[in-house]
Design goal:
Elements (H helix, E strand, L loop, with lengths): L21 E9 L4 E7 L2 H10 L8 E7 L2 H13 L1
Antiparallel strand pairs: 1-2, 1-3
Length: 84
């Protein structure tokens, strides 16, 4: 019996990464307070610039995470933009 699905087949409701809304979350060590802080950005270059700016001291670190927003959250944010 043959399997009719290809290994990379997607379900009909799934979106390609290009069609999904992305956010860029930066986690970093605030060397002044000793606390881990978080910031969110709408584009990768702004997130990377911010992360690089945090690397002023030898013990400093910063990580940029790409976050795919769920479709329901995208609709909620769009509704907030229309109201604002």
């Amino acid at each position: 019996m043959e399997n009719s699905q290809t290994p990379n087949s997607q379900t009909p409701n799934s979106q390609t990464p290009e069609a999904q809304q992305l956010e860029f979350h930066v986690s970093y060590l605030n060397t002044l307070s000793g606390r881990i802080e978080h910031e969110e950005f709408g584009d990768r270059s702004a997130a990377e610039r911010f992360a690089n700016a945090q690397l002023k001291e030898a013990e400093a670190w910063a990580v940029v995470d790409v976050v795919v927003l769920p479709a329901a959250q995208q609709q909620h944010e769009h509704a907030q933009q229309l109201v604002a």
